[in-house]
Amino acid sequence: MSRLRASLTPYLLLFPGTLWLAIFFVIPTVVMLSLSLQSGDVVNGYAFTFNWHSYVDGIGTYHDQIIRSLVYGVISTVIQIVIGFPVAYWIAFKGGTRKSVYLFLLLLPFLVSFVLRTISWQFFLSDNGMLLGPLKSLGLVPEDFHILATSAAVIGGLAYNFLPFMILPMYVALERIDPRVLEAAQDLYASKVQTFLRVVLPLSLPGVFAGVLMTFVPATSDYVNASVLGGTSNTMIGNVIQNQFLVNQDYPTASALSFTLMALLLVGIFAYAKALGTEDVLEVAAR
Amino acid sequence: MNDPYRQDPALLRGMTQRRLGRRDAFRLAGLSAAGLALAACGVQGKGTTRPSSSAQAQSEVEKFWSGKTKNGHVDFANWPLYMDPKQPELKQFTQQTGITVNYKEVILEMPSWFAKIQPQLAAGQSIDYDLMVVTNGLHFDQLVQLGYLAPLDHSKLPNFAANAAPEYKNESFDPGNVYSIPWASGMTGIAYNPKYVDTPPTSMADLWNPKYKGKVGMMSDSQEIANFGLFAIGVDPDKSTEADWEKAAAKLQEQRDAGIVRKYYDQAYTDPLAKGDIWLTMAWSGDVFQKNVSDGTDLKFVVPQEGGTIWTDNMTIPKTATNPVDAIMLMDFFYDVNIAAHLAEYINYVTPVPAAKDVIAADAAKATGDDKKLLEEVASSPLVFPSEQDSARLRNYVNFKTPQEQKKFESIFQAITTS
Questions:
Q1: CA-based nearest residue in chain B for residue A67
Q2: Residue B275 and residue A128: Cβ atoms within 8 Å?
């Protein structure tokens, strides 16, 4: 009896998580895959017809927006690594007893809703706003200069909005590095630069990887930043999907585009993992 | 690849991982096959048509209303800023009838509202609202076609019969007010910020003026922007054909390519206009007035000489409403001349009750100081009581004969707004 219980325990422990995934991930994914192959309209209903056209037409019409989203996603992720790594490094190694205070400060803006934060950026960056107003009155930038409605504004917004999700995993990886390893490096006459490049950096890579996973994916599929900060030529694939779902009620095309995006992101992540040499992506991300 | 860190043991330790096995890949493939098998689940729809004869309409009305009684409560879903926040009209209604009103400003835009209520309506369940305000257009048509709206019993709408303006009794989207009576109408025209625009815009050409490069706002809604494109090429939207749409789209594309358009807005254009991010923009009449009142801005609104768009927000009762009798009483209550006047005084959209003008003028005569000035402004405002000259230039959204036609229309204009 007790042996039976023991052998059942892992399954029982897994049960809530599995159920959660089944209800909120597997079923919607299957429904969406199904929808992407259906045809019809809202009034007369949709039926499953192996309608591959939704993929062909969707990608044919919106490939520019897909590519733009991937480019924005990559650039914003790189910016986040460049900004985030020093911050994570500093908190992990120089934070001392105040580490948790710094982490709290890092997360503080994120107690405010995502959309509100983006809108406050809109205020800050507006043509005659807090940033550009004084610069223009000093004559430092031309009168018709603007930041909003440019790619830079959207990429900046993406980088800003997802930054903590980049910093936290990197911090965790760096914080976990045993100080004795660093001492050993010094004992072996490694210079500070060498210690960093050959000990700290490699050991932090799983954190960077997890950070990229947690920021690149939502940044690429985001639609808030493009709609609040962007202009006429910054539409991302997330905006298109939202528009197809809600405005056009073209559920098949919207689902097909979602699946295309998902496939591209998965391919991208596995390729990235391969390039880094880490193949079991999920395991790395979980650490 | 000659990577210097490849040979580094520390790096290897951090990165060497178990491979994704062939069996795992098969398992994934099996999962997706199972998915396809499950994929039989379609989305239900059910097309119905408008009643073809008045006898049929009457029988549908009787079928819906028989056995329905007053319950003493009504849940009312409306758009934000569509009633004085103190809700004096509703208080008066409760006083007169004993019916309590739960008023919620939950409708922010038609697409998301439709998406929210559609599953419940499709399942024949209550959406928790007995009365909702729906803009004419695609989603209104779909609510009708899907049979989600209750046919109105006009014997319960005496005020509407007596006080509504004739043009609101035979609107193209709901002839004979079978499913809806108007809440308020509005116009789409050009709003501008006089701080940046010296010569007041008068025509569509101003939206194409290279002088305003990067400072013009347009709307992302296909129907709204299409009408402006059509006005710009001198075509009446009511009579437009697919060839006209293509021409209008080319005109709009030209405006976009010249860098004149700053952004295609869904609705948040008043803030950028007040801040000077854009100088002139497509706009809804009431928005401009309300922005001026709430933030003390001095934005202006004009109906361009080529034309503007008129649209109507309509009170409707979902078929699954639990308190339809209370709801229809409230609908009729808003057609009381005094109530309509008070409502228009606050919201500043076009009222469907023309007699309200005299009431507002009379109120203005009694009032003093700032109130007097404000009321006089409302009574004489072309936004609330459009002049005949303006009215003659106002047009409806483009109407579609088939869903295919509409799809074509959307794809023509969205190619401009979402690229």
A1: B419
A2: yes
- Does domain A66-286 match CATH 1.10.3720.10? yes
The CA distance from B273 to B216, in Å, is 9
Q: CB contacts < 8 Å between A and B, how many? A: 143
* Tally of residues, chain A: 287
Sign of CA dihedral B89, B95, B98, B101: positive
**Residues B368, B332: contact at Cβ < 8 Å?**
no
d(CA A15, CA A10): 9
Contact check, Cβ <8 Å, A202/B14: yes
**What is the pLDDT of chain A when averaged over all its residues?**
90
Domain chopping of chain A, boundaries: 66-286
pLDDT tens for A261-272 read 999 999 988 888
Within 10 angstroms of residue A96's Cβ, the number of other Cβ atoms is 9
* Cβ pair B264:A29 closer than 8 A: no
- What's the CATH number of domain B68-185+311-383, 3.40.50.2020, 3.30.1360.200, 3.40.630.10, 3.40.190.10? 3.40.190.10
The string of DSSP codes covering A230-262 is --TT---HHHHHHIIIIIS--HHHHHHHHHHHH
The ipTM (two decimal places) reads: 0.84
Give the tens place of pLDDT for each residue, A75-92. 999 999 999 999 999 999
Between CA B18 and CA B25 the distance in angstroms is 14
**pLDDT tens for each residue of A107-125:** 998 899 999 999 999 999 9
Residue B148 pLDDT more than 60? yes
